[in-house]
Amino acid sequence: MVFFYNIGILLYTFAIRLAASFNEKASLWIKGRKGIWTKIRSMERGDARLVWFHAASLGEFEQGRPVMEALKKSRPDTKIILTFFSPSGYEIRKNYQGADYIYYLPSDTPRHARRFVELVRPDAAVFIKYEYWYHYLKQLHLRQIPVYLISAIFRKEQPFFKWWGGLHRQMLRFFTRLFIQDSESARLLSSIHIEAFEQTGDTRFDRVKQIADEARNIEIVEKFLNGQPAIVCGSTWPPDEDLLLEYINRDSSRFKWIIAPHEIGESHVKNILNKCHKKAVRYSEETADWADADILLIDCIGLLSSVYRYGKAAYIGGGFGAGIHNTLEAAVYGMPVVFGPRYQKFKEAVSLIQEGGAFSIHTGEELKETLDTLIQNPAIMETAGSQALKFVNSQLGATDVIMRCLTTTSQT
In angstroms, how far is CA 59 from the centroid of its own chain? Predict the structure, then answer.
């Protein structure tokens, strides 16, 4: 099985190199790893405690972020090395101030893994949610370096639980401890005789709470609202926008609308504006009559998590495509969330619906019924928002449990 695993790694790397000539992400994957060993050798390892965090991409980084920041706060002398597999994580967070060193992870070959661990000499390693690299995990295990998996979640469809998944089960045994999200993951792990786990929940809840506590006031949004209530539509895609604008254009309530599309390219922004029958303004406009507008279009990145705090309810985009975006960023402010039909792979969305803090829609008619109910019945909106916040608060604390392990490790 290790032989076939190694062949798979080589074929994947070869495919990425072929794709690099016409695919920007593949090109970044290759370019980002050029000279990587020179960079790693030049890091000032020193004698301080060092913890290695690895994230596949941006989403996993956000799950690991509260743990990294709590570790730095608790043990300021601890160094952190952060690695990414994907350009969509590295390119956005390569200047993150919470880590001392940030690199792409060299591909998982026996030689690379041995060389990396020998150069970095971590005192502990933390893999976030998934990313099971056999040779890296084996090298850490051979050197008796504690290695943890945080915010992990398991499904019966994964290789660990198949008859042919022996190599994957061995990877799980390399971990010192698995911090898992839910009871189903615990059941699945027990079924394959993996017992070194602890059900702590998802660190994303701690992260969104941290973001909410640090949310900033946005003067333009406050001018736009002018004391009126609003519904925030975040990370929307064209199918979401078509349904939303059909509703918004007919809406006669006193609610205002904030739309933050996932894609903010100029052609897409103009397309949205052309479909607005009410007065709409762009966030980037410098001389707009904010208070007189009905729709505010957020045409820049980095604001959405703070914009949600101004909403009475939120619509989360992506549910008519590959899957919904982050529902927790809105729910943490105590508002109901609405999204499209493709949410089943997102445990928090399923739980929010079960708790009465979220609603899924399939059609424009269902969207109209849901929004009409919330807008016309303040008590229903408030109750649903309270349930959303109650659910988020009930899931806090994973970071503290993980920290107890890491701080103990960094003292040994």
Answer: 3
- Return d(Cα 270, Cα 37) in angstroms, integer: 45
Quote the pTM value.
0.85
User: Which residue in this structure is represented by tokens 């990587």?
Assistant: 36
- Report the candidate in 52, 58, 124, 53 with the shortest Cα–Cα distance to residue 404: 124
Strands (E), 212-309: 230-236, 256-261, 280-282, 295-297
Q: What type of residue sits at position 166? A: G
User: What is the CA 397 to chain-centroid distance, rounded?
Assistant: 17
Paired tokens of 15: 């495919």
Under 8 Å between Cβ of 339 and 324: yes
**Residues in a beta bridge with 125:** 52, 147
10-residue mean pLDDT profile of the chain (412 residues): values are: 93 94 92 94 91 94 94 94 94 94 96 97 95 96 97 94 96 97 95 96 93 93 96 97 98 96 94 96 90 96 94 98 95 98 94 98 98 98 98 95 79 48
Token pair belonging to 136: 């890296």
Residue whose entry in the numeric block shows the structure tokens 């980037």: 284
